[in-house]
């Protein structure tokens, strides 16, 4: 905080954004970079989404109609990779860029040049990844979890490009995480102690540590793949003394924290929106912080619940079952706290609040199926079926993605100084809500009835619910084009927004004018709890 | 406006969540109860945890929707000031903990039972291949491949689909009822997963490692499953069919199978010494090619660029015959090309190699006889 106060007053007010194209290439401004992250994430969301449309169109009826199995596998793989690494993660980094400095009363991020680099790596990483689709042999076709040896000995030649692209994404994420940590630790307004930080800041701080711990493991595992494919090692090949299951242990040691990387910032967002529209302080602030930290710690001890069928020893199976069930406790605490915040509040249901309530309900449903999946003997029946697909889409779509959409509606007035159209926002919500449940709820049933995931064609008894899922997916997909329209309309012609358009919203970001000035806080604000 | 919207949405929500499971119960859209003691236990765990979740959901969402309706600003609700209560936090940490412990006890018991693979009456070695299953009856010296028998025209929507579309195989795995059967699961190439829902058995087939599982089927019948781990292009096309027979029928089947094997051996010996004409080999080879090779190399012989090499005009299929025979017999290590020496008879091998050397304008005019294959095998 001293850094901010010494430097900000003398050399700050006199430079605004540069003009033209170079503004975006050379920018070190947290708002510009945040904006670019968010647009990149949205573009990736639409690209990954159109791949989902291809998948659902093929699965509309039994039989092969539109695509061949090989291409279908490329679509499922790319859909997963693009949505996880291209849509959800960059969107959260974009939100972190925009919001963290404003929330803690800082002028910018702590490491602005690195911030620029960590963004500009991404378009190249995803360009590379998408290009593999046009290479000989096609793009990655081994699922987003890329289990060896399918992804090593049996992979298409483009796999090396895929590995390089994962390396780039990892670099970007690690730099982003370092930046977030440095900013939060060093640049808070005077008086903002750790236990007074806004929850979005807290959840992102914890997420950043998860990223720092998990991404190098991913980088390691893809490097081992690279060695197996190109340099004759046998990390994952039993014929050379390696072990294919080692791949899964390493992958999920990254992969499980990764799923919390995609949900903890969402918890933070919901913890801002629910109190704002309940006009009541968040219930149980400190328990929220402790619950988030517990989830983060537990996330490193549960990875093998993704591998219950690989033949773990009984003791391992039991350990991972118990540890996984434990996660329900802190997650439950968070849900109870949000509901207690609403309880005896004074509620209004603007668009961000609708998305937040849907988040709580539907994420909890995803949590319930997660609890069911934790029961290892039952997991033998659920593993690798559409029940799992239903589960993780319930935590990711109405979880991560709804929280991002809610955040966009909630902070859009602050970002562009204009209000979105409330009526259109509500239509977007109900349109998405119906589409999403039509898509993913039936997947529980086909999964329980025995439909494996990642298949381009299925037995006749799964036909009716698959058709419903496909119709739901088309409804959900078009709703997101409508979202694009709403956002563009807001930026271009929305009504002027006041500094704080929400009656119950609290936090330093709302003390700034709308749109927020190019350098957020040139003088550290006085923070009072 | 807001309220109207929400009310409508709320009823839609209720309708979706109440009606859909009702309908689905009739259509058997739930986990099958299955036909083993373990599958019953798993099903009951599944239903217990499901109803626990429903109960929690009713309470939690009940409170939430109650406040959404009653604590609305439009209804004049004034926000209360409370925002902390340590006692409440402790209570709602402890209650879930107790529920979880209660759930963990039966789950642990079932899991311990599932892991007890001792004292098996029958041992079956299951090997996953891209994209078929191989079953070996370890005690009875029987082994065979089990491949999808749904015809391609049904998959391409050129013929009406059968009831068991994609869930039928040429040779099912036959198991005795009431005997403890142990599965030794492994793979020849990538990771597969052997899953039959009615038995509640799912085990990954991992190359280089052997996993164990077991079952004891209570009722005779046909039970169908599928590969559950993405294993490449035709992952969706390698089903599993288990036929459970009474003990007498099973013994009869084993005896029959062994007799068949003996007969096949003699037939193979006869055909190996028979004078095959070029045209006979071509006709036989076309059948073998369609059954075994076409999944990768395609019926046109064109393969899939950069994934599965073309045979049409390829150096292997038009070049040195010995080299061609070697690759078919021993595969290409580290690629999807399997070793077929043990999978096919000498006649089948000779026929398919002859076919590959002459189909699709390869026209080498070569005829590879079963005796030539036998000579190569004898040398090793």
TrEMBL record, chain A:
Membrane topology type: Multi-pass membrane protein
Domain of life per record: Bacteria
EC number: 7.1.1.9
Reactions accelerated catalytically: 4 Fe(II)-[cytochrome c] + O2 + 8 H(+)(in) = 4 Fe(III)-[cytochrome c] + 2 H2O + 4 H(+)(out)
Membrane recorded as keyword: yes
Domain Cytochrome oxidase subunit I profile as annotated: residue spans: 24-528
Keywords: Cell membrane, Copper, Electron transport, Heme, Iron, Membrane, Metal-binding, Respiratory chain, Translocase, Transmembrane, Transmembrane helix, Transport
Subcellular location: Cell membrane; Membrane
Keyword Cell membrane (UniProt): yes
Cross-referenced SUPFAM superfamilies: Cytochrome c oxidase subunit I-like
TM helices/strands, residue ranges: 37-57, 77-99, 119-139, 159-187, 199-227, 259-277, 289-308, 320-340, 352-375, 387-412, 424-445, 465-488
Pathway: Energy metabolism; oxidative phosphorylation
Function noted in UniProt: Cytochrome c oxidase is the component of the respiratory chain that catalyzes the reduction of oxygen to water. Subunits 1-3 form the functional core of the enzyme complex. CO I is the catalytic subunit of the enzyme. Electrons originating in cytochrome c are transferred via the copper A center of subunit 2 and heme A of subunit 1 to the bimetallic center formed by heme A3 and copper B.
UniProt record similarity statement: Belongs to the heme-copper respiratory oxidase family.
Protein name, per record: Cytochrome c oxidase subunit 1
UniProtKB/TrEMBL annotation, chain B:
Location relative to the cell: Cell membrane; Membrane
Membrane topology: Multi-pass membrane protein
Domain Cytochrome c: 280-360
Top-level taxon of origin: Bacteria
Cofactor remark: Binds a copper A center.
EC number(s) recorded for this UniProt protein: 7.1.1.9
Family matches, as Pfam families: COX2, COX2_TM, Cytochrome_CBB3
Membrane spanning residue stretches: 49-69, 90-112
Enzyme class: translocase
Catalytic activity, reaction form: 4 Fe(II)-[cytochrome c] + O2 + 8 H(+)(in) = 4 Fe(III)-[cytochrome c] + 2 H2O + 4 H(+)(out)
Every Cytochrome oxidase subunit II copper A binding domain range: 119-256
Cofactor(s) this protein requires: Cu cation
Domain (Cytochrome oxidase subunit II transmembrane region profile): residue spans on this chain: 21-118
Main localization (coarse): membrane
Keyword list, A-Z: Copper, Electron transport, Heme, Iron, Membrane, Metal-binding, Respiratory chain, Translocase, Transmembrane, Transmembrane helix, Transport
Primary role: Subunits I and II form the functional core of the enzyme complex. Electrons originating in cytochrome c are transferred via heme a and Cu(A) to the binuclear center formed by heme a3 and Cu(B).
Similarity comment: Belongs to the cytochrome c oxidase subunit 2 family.
Protein name as it appears in the record: Cytochrome c oxidase subunit 2
Organism lineage: Bacteria, Pseudomonadati, Pseudomonadota, Gammaproteobacteria, Oceanospirillales
């Amino acid at each position: 905080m001293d850094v901010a106060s010494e430097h900000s007053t003398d050399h700050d007010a006199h430079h605004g954004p540069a003009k033209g194209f170079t503004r975006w290439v050379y920018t070190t401004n947290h708002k510009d970079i945040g904006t670019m992250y968010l647009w990149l994430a949205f573009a990736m969301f639409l690209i990954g989404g159109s791949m989902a449309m291809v998948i659902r169109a093929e699965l509309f009826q039994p039989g092969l109609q539109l695509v061949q199995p090989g291409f279908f596998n490329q679509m499922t793989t790319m859909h997963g990779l693009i949505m996880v690494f291209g849509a959800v993660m960059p969107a959260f980094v974009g939100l972190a860029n925009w919001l963290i400095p404003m929330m803690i009363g800082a002028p910018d991020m702590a490491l602005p040049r690195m911030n620029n680099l960590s963004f500009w790596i991404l378009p190249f990483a995803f360009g590379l990844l998408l290009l593999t689709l046009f290479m000989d042999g096609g793009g990655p076709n081994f699922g987003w979890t890329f289990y060896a040896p399918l992804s090593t000995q049996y992979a298409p030649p483009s796999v090396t490009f895929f590995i390089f692209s994962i390396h780039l994404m990892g670099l970007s994420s690690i730099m982003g995480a370092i930046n977030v940590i440095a900013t939060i630790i060093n640049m808070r307004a005077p008086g903002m102690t750790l236990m007074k930080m806004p929850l979005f800041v807290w959840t992102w701080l914890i997420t950043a540590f998860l990223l720092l711990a998990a991404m190098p493991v991913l980088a390691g595992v893809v490097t081992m793949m690279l060695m197996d494919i190109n340099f004759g090692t046998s990390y994952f090949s039993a014929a050379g003394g390696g072990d294919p299951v080692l791949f899964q242990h390493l992958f999920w040691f990254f992969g499980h924290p990764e799923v919390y990387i995609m949900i903890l910032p969402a918890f933070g967002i919901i913890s801002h929106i629910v109190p704002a529209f309940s006009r009541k302080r968040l219930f149980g602030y400190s328990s929220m912080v402790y619950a988030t930290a517990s989830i983060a710690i537990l996330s490193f001890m549960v990875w093998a619940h993704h591998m219950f069928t690989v033949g773990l020893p009984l003791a391992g199976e039991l350990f991972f079952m118990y540890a996984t069930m434990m996660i329900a406790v802190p997650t439950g605490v968070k849900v109870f706290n949000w509901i207690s915040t609403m309880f005896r509040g004074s509620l209004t249901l603007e668009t961000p609040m609708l998305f937040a309530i849907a988040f709580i309900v539907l994420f909890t449903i995803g949590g319930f199926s997660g609890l069911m999946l934790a029961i290892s003997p039952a997991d033998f029946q659920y593993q690798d079926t559409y029940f799992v697909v239903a589960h993780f889409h319930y935590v990711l779509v109405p979880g991560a993605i709804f929280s991002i959409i809610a955040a966009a509606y909630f902070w859009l007035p602050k970002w562009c100084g204009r209000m979105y159209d409330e009526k259109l926002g509500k239509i977007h919500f109900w349109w998405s809500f119906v589409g999403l449940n039509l898509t993913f709820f039936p997947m529980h049933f086909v999964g329980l009835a025995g439909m494996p995931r990642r298949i381009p064609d299925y037995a006749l008894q799964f036909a009716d619910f698959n058709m419903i899922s496909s119709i739901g997916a088309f409804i959900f997909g078009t709703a997101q084009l409508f979202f694009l329209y709403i956002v563009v309309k807001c930026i271009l012609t929305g009504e002027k927004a006041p500094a704080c358009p929400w009656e119950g919203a609290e936090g330093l970001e709302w003390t700034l004018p709308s749109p927020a000035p190019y350098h957020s806080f040139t003088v550290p604000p006085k923070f009072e709890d | 406006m807001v309220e109207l919207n929400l009310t409508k949405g709320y009823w839609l929500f209720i309708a979706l969540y109440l009606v859909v499971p009702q309908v689905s119960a009739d259509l058997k859209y739930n986990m099958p109860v299955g036909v083993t003691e373990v599958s019953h236990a798993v099903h009951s765990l599944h239903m217990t945890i499901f109803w626990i979740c429903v109960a929690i959901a009713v309470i939690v969402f009940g409170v939430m929707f109650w406040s959404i309706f009653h604590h609305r600003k439009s209804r004049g609700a004034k926000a209360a000031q409370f925002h902390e209560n340590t006692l409440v936090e402790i209570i709602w940490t402890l209650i879930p903990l107790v529920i979880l412990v209660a759930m963990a006890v039966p789950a642990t018991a079932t899991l311990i039972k599932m892991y007890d693979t001792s004292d098996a009456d029958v041992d079956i070695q299951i090997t996953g291949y891209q994209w078929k299953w191989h079953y070996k009856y370890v005690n009875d010296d029987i082994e065979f491949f089990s491949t999808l028998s749904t015809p391609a025209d049904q998959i391409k929507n050129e013929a009406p689909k059968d009831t068991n579309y994609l869930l039928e195989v040429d040779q099912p795995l036959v198991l005795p009822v009431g005997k403890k059967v142990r599965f030794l699961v492994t793979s020849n190439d990538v990771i597969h997963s052997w899953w039959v829902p009615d038995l509640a058995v799912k085990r990954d087939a991992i190359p280089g490692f052997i996993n164990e599982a077991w079952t004891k089927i209570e009722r005779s019948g046909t039970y169908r499953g599928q590969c559950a781990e993405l294993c490449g292009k035709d992952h969706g096309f390698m089903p599993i069919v288990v036929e459970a027979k009474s003990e007498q029928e099973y013994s009869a089947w084993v005896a029959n199978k062994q007799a068949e094997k003996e007969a096949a051996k003699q037939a193979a010996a006869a055909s190996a010494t028979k004078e095959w004409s070029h045209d006979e080999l071509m006709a036989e080879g076309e059948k073998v090619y369609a059954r075994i090779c076409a999944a990768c190399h395609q019926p046109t012989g064109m393969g899939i660029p950069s994934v599965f090499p073309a045979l049409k005009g390829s150096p292997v299929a038009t070049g040195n015959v010995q080299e061609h025979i070697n690759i078919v017999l021993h595969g290409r290590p580290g690629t999807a090309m399997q070793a077929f020496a043990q999978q096919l008879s000498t006649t089948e091998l000779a026929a398919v190699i002859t076919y590959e050397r002459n189909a699709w304008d390869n026209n080498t005019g070569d005829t590879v006889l079963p005796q030539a294959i036998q000579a190569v095998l004898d040398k090793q």
